[in-house]
Write a structure and sequence with these properties.
mainly beta
Length: about 70
């Protein structure tokens, strides 16, 4: 893993700090059959904490715990 810089969320976006991620068969298939170029971060089911929200977001706020 390596740190990356991210832009602030756009109006309808939410930035979530991922705390846990599940790996399932579609992730393994992507790894095994190289459908995604390396490097790649596997896992598309996760849970984390909202860090920032865009200007139009009203359903969550920074600090909320969320599941993706």
């Amino acid at each position: 893993m390596e740190p990356v810089e991210l832009d602030s969320p756009k109006a309808n976006e939410v930035l979530v700090e991922i705390k846990a991620s599940g790996i399932c068969h579609t992730d393994a298939a992507g790894r095994d059959f190289a459908t995604t170029p390396y490097p790649v971060a596997l896992g598309h089911e996760g849970a984390g904490i909202v860090k920032e929200v865009g200007s139009s977001v009203t359903s969550v706020k920074p600090g909320d715990h969320v599941v993706l």
